[in-house]
Amino acid sequence: MKLRTNSHTLLGALLGVAVMAAGCVTINIYFPAAAAEKAADRIIDEVWQLKGGVPTPPAPAPGAKPAEK
Q1: How far apart are CA 50 and CA 60, in angstroms?
Q2: Helices (H), 1-32
Q3: Number of domains within the chain
Q4: The domain containing residue 36 runs over which residues?
Q5: Is 25 part of any domain?
Q6: 67: alpha, beta or left, given left = phi > 0 and alpha = psi -120 to 50?
Q7: 1-5, 32-36, 42-46, 57-61 — which is least confidently predicted?
Q8: How many of the other CB atoms lie within 10 Å of CB of 44?
Q9: Does the predicted model carry a pTM greater than 0.70?
Q10: Residue 13 pLDDT more than 60?
Q11: What's the rounded Cα separation, in Å, for the pair 17 and 9?
């Protein structure tokens, strides 16, 4: 009976270590600065067009593929 208790303790300890190690995983996502700046400029241009009264193109239909530029 003593051996069984020790094996459960060891299994529990190993499981605890595995859970703690999995909790320390970090995923870093890096965005290229040039692409982020280009996207920001596009958004600013769209906002200025809305304020200037220039009509914007209609939104695409749901499920439609985006147009290639």
Answers
A1: 18
A2: 2-23
A3: 1
A4: 2-51
A5: yes
A6: beta
A7: 1-5
A8: 10
A9: no
A10: yes
A11: 12
Of residues 8, 25, 5, the one with CA closest to residue 16: 8
Domain assignment present for residue 34? The answer is: yes
Does position 6 have pLDDT exceeding 50, yes or no? yes
With contact defined as beta carbons under 8 Å apart, do 60 and 66 qualify? yes
Q: Is residue 13 part of a domain?
A: yes
Q: What is the pLDDT of residues 35-55, one digit of tens each?
A: 889 999 999 998 888 776 555
Tokens of 35: 């692409």
Whether 35 contacts 45, CB under 8 Å: no
Residue 69 in tokens: 């530029």
**Contact at 8 Å (CB) between 49 and 56?**
yes
